[in-house]
Design brief:
This protein is mainly alpha-helical. The protein contains 7 helices and 3 strands, in the order ααβααββααα. About 20% of the residues are buried.
Length: about 180
């Protein structure tokens, strides 16, 4: 094993075993990434009652206390429709409020509530922050290699058209939130 926890490169064989082993290793690595994301999402849901993406929206709004939906969606790299759905869910939970801009009545600001601020402060360490810390500690050439490989994998999975933010999350951003029974 190397310092990152990955297995050492397999020695070549003449029967094609190395290619199969590398395929299996790549699939296992993908599953480990997906599993880490899933486990973090469960921990976050259990402790804060929110998804990682919802926490990220709250973090962005919390930075200044207010933000426009367009600014949040641009920063997260998601569509405005996706952002509207996220804000709707957060507003329903009392985490944010919408307020008409005093300077431009066509514009709406999203304001964080005390409940939203408390959720940000009590949320577990975001998985993406751990990733960012370790990624930024890498040499420039290593960062370039990781980005290149991840873009290639995303392309292999035909995911170029998926609306994605730089937040690690395994669920559907547009899935309706469950309605309380009663």
């Amino acid at each position: 094993m190397d310092a990152g926890g990955a297995s050492a490169t397999l020695s070549p064989s003449f029967d094609g075993e190395t290619a199969v082993d590398r395929t299996d290793q790549s699939l296992i690595a993908l599953r480990r990434i997906l599993r880490a994301t899933e486990l973090y999402g469960r921990e976050l849901a259990q402790k804060a009652g929110l998804t990682a993406v919802q926490i990220r929206v709250l973090q962005i709004v919390c930075e200044t206390g207010r933000a426009t939906p367009k600014a949040i969606s641009t920063r997260m790299g998601v569509s405005q429709a996706t952002m509207t759905a996220l804000i709707d869910r957060l507003a329903a939970k009392g985490m944010v409020e919408r307020q008409r801009s005093e300077t431009d009545r066509r514009q709406t600001n999203v304001l964080i509530t005390e409940r939203g601020r408390a959720a940000v402060e009590s949320a577990p360490d975001p998985l993406q922050q751990r990733y960012v810390k370790r990624f930024e500690a890498m040499e420039d050439w290593e960062q370039s290699l990781v980005v290149s490989v991840l873009e290639r994998v995303a392309g292999m999975l035909d995911s170029a058209e998926i609306d994605a933010s730089p937040v690690l999350h395994s669920g559907d951003l547009r899935a309706p939130s469950p309605q309380p029974k009663g």
